Amino acid sequence: SPQNIIGNTPAIKDCFDLVEAVAGTEAIVLLTGSTGTGKELFARSIHYSSGRAKDPFLAINCASLPKNLLESELFGHEKGAFTGATRQHKGKFEQAAFGTLFLDEIGEMDIHVQAKLLRILENGEYQRVGGTQTLRNNARIISATNKRLRSSIEAGSFREDLYFRLNVFEIQLPDLKKRLDDIPLLTQHFIQKFNKLHNRSVQDISPEVIQTFQDYEWPGNIREL
Question: What is the pLDDT of residues 127-157, one digit of tens each?
């Protein structure tokens, strides 16, 4: 299985096969699935199984920044481009170089920023905010969404042309309730992780607890577990 991803059920093994199939290519990948299903872990796995593994893996959450800051974070800005821009700033595309740039929650990206991203995907070119110099993108792009982008397209908040550019190879991650047999493995993994973190020595948990875990719906998926 890909590094750091735990699971033996058919649902997750199908995803492992897709990672294996796409990692060594240059294809743009779209990871879809509910919140907490491990999309960033899968993005890292694709990067570290690829020929770009020695180059940076950079992640940015498109929902966590307002439009002007997201644009500057992605594409960089020139000194004086806006109030407070006291020096030139290299954006994530520039910092990623020949590595991988992971765009999380892509469905939250402002429509104006979407247009600039589309240009990069179409011809590999972009400019820093407030700049005139044309830069080339060398990074591989992996994006992720927990939204139904089709609905966003119909609502006019997501560009259809961008969707087709991003969705070259889709990997849909299953909800935890679709892989309940992985819960004992995952639980053991988290016990070991938190033993180390909190200096504890919990060995195991009772079968009753595992049964309770397997009877639960897990709306927050693995993050909730």
Answer: 999 999 999 999 999 999 998 999 999 999 9
Which residues are CB-neighbours of 161 under 8 A, at least 6 positions away?
A: 118
pTM for the whole structure: 0.93
Q: Which phi and psi (to 5°) does residue 177 adopt?
A: -65, -15
Nearest residue to 15 (alpha-carbon basis) of 149, 33, 107, 60: 33
Longest dimension (CA), the chain: 64
Q: Rounded to whole angstroms, how far apart are CA atoms 86 and 82?
A: 9
Q: How far apart are CA 97 and CA 101, in angstroms?
A: 9
Estimate the share of the chain in helix, then strand, then coil, as percent rounded to the nearest 5: 45, 15, 40
Q: What is the DSSP letter of 129?
A: B
